[in-house]
Amino acid sequence: MNELKKDNTEEKILNAAQTVFIKKGLDGSRMQEIADHAGINKALLHYYFRTKQKLFEAIFKKVFKHVFPKIEMLVLSDLPIEEKLGTFIEKYIDVLLKNPYLPAFILKEMNRDPVFLASVMKSQGVHPEHILKMFEKEMEAGTISKMDPRDLMVNVLGFCIFPFAAKPLLNIMFFENDKKAYNNFLKKRKETVKKFILNSILIR
Amino acid sequence: MNELKKDNTEEKILNAAQTVFIKKGLDGSRMQEIADHAGINKALLHYYFRTKQKLFEAIFKKVFKHVFPKIEMLVLSDLPIEEKLGTFIEKYIDVLLKNPYLPAFILKEMNRDPVFLASVMKSQGVHPEHILKMFEKEMEAGTISKMDPRDLMVNVLGFCIFPFAAKPLLNIMFFENDKKAYNNFLKKRKETVKKFILNSILIR
DNA sequence: TCCCGGTTTAACCATCCGGTTAATCTTTTT
DNA sequence: AAAAAGATTAACCGGATGGTTAAACCGGGA
């Protein structure tokens, strides 16, 4: 039963820690609260993950994977650029719709330790160069307007991520805190963002 | 000397608190650290601002004013839409260039208390309706493409704010942590963002 | 059955931290 | 110059918090 039991509690801990950390951040979270949430003793947390810091880093890595989806195939495929960008935007916003709290969490905790952040990014295999190269080729081929490819990438990411990160503010500003209306707005953005971006860069 | 002294220490406290809070957030900041930073006794903090919470709220309000510039005139002016949007983008990115840490701070602490956030927004006179109306009129007049005006506004804000909020990540991704290069990138965005947006929505 | 390794817990510890208090120092008022 | 009012400090307090320890528990093998 050893294996099973261990996996079970470890998973319970990870789930509880994720819930609490995402909501309250590293500083705002209490080991006791995580333990309660997992239905175990506080000492058991330290038995599995020696320190709060280590537990947090495990969660951060786990969560980080979610917000950097595997887009390599998309880049390497030979679909036309508008298809590539379109499906990326759609898929990415879908991921965020399923994990709407992740952008705020990542942005919140990003500043804590740049070295750790860099190591996580490297270990996750984030390779912006491929995408930048792809954009540059399209520009040379004359399918999209010439610009700094990093600008293009920041713009696409910003369109997808920002409305999730700034949710509370935008929700008050535009929807009087009507959660459903805001969610609807986000869903529609899969199309509007696509249109907005392609309308700007596509050369017909 | 009463007035002068009081103003002086109060200002010292506010400055110190702003520095520390912006860097470490509410939970990560220590009253002692703020006191040290201001060169005063910890008890004096409580003398001026009874609790940590109250001190934090004072800072949050102060900082919030900065990121919501007075754009009413711009909206009410009868410049053509491309001028209005252009100068807004330019001015806004300029504000953020002078306070590059503010977006991350606001996004970080936004979730803490939605009610307080709403009250701050109201007290700052954030009136998105004017801007939305303005956009709608332009769409009816046929000067810009028809779309949900809220999308347009989120897009403009996202373009300006996101690259500041996600600075550490983007800086590693695109510039190998070269701060100057990244700052240069942000400066250039005043033009590229303008172009990108107008290119998408303007009807010629 | 008894022991042994890994798991889980209750109790504990040292430190940190927000906040208070009472005394001191400084400025203003009379 | 004395007293009153205000600003500032050192010392302290109680509770919270991350982490430790030693004992109990539990399943599997001898």
Description of the molecule:
The structure is a homodimer of 204-residue chains. The first copy, chain A, is mainly alpha-helical and 204 residues long. Chain A is globular, with a radius of gyration of 20 Å. Chain A folds into 2 domains: 2-56, Arc Repressor Mutant, subunit A; 68-201, Tetracycline Repressor, domain 2 (Orthogonal Bundle). The longest helix of chain A is centred in the first third of the chain and has 27 residues, at 2-28. Helices cover 80% and strands 0% of the residues of chain A. The interface between A and B is large, with 50 and 50 residues. Chain A binds a DNA duplex (30 and 30 nucleotides) through residues 1-2, 5-6, 9, 30-32, 40-44, 46-47, 50-52.
SSE layout and pairing:
Two copies of one chain form a homodimer.
Chain A: H1 2-28, H2 31-38, H3 42-48, H4 52-67, H5 72-76, H6 81-98, H7 102-110, H8 114-123, H9 128-141, H10 149-165, H11 167-175, H12 179-201
Helix pairs in contact in A: 1-2, 1-4, 1-7, 6-10, 6-12, 7-10, 9-10, 10-12
Chain A binds a DNA duplex (30 and 30 nucleotides) through residues 1-2, 5-6, 9, 30-32, 40-44, 46-47, 50-52.
In short:
The structure is a homodimer of 204-residue chains. By secondary structure, chain A is mainly alpha-helical.
Characteristic key phrases:
homodimer, 204 residues, mainly alpha, Arc Repressor Mutant, subunit A, Tetracycline Repressor, domain 2, 2 domains, 12 helices, 80% helix, globular, DNA-binding
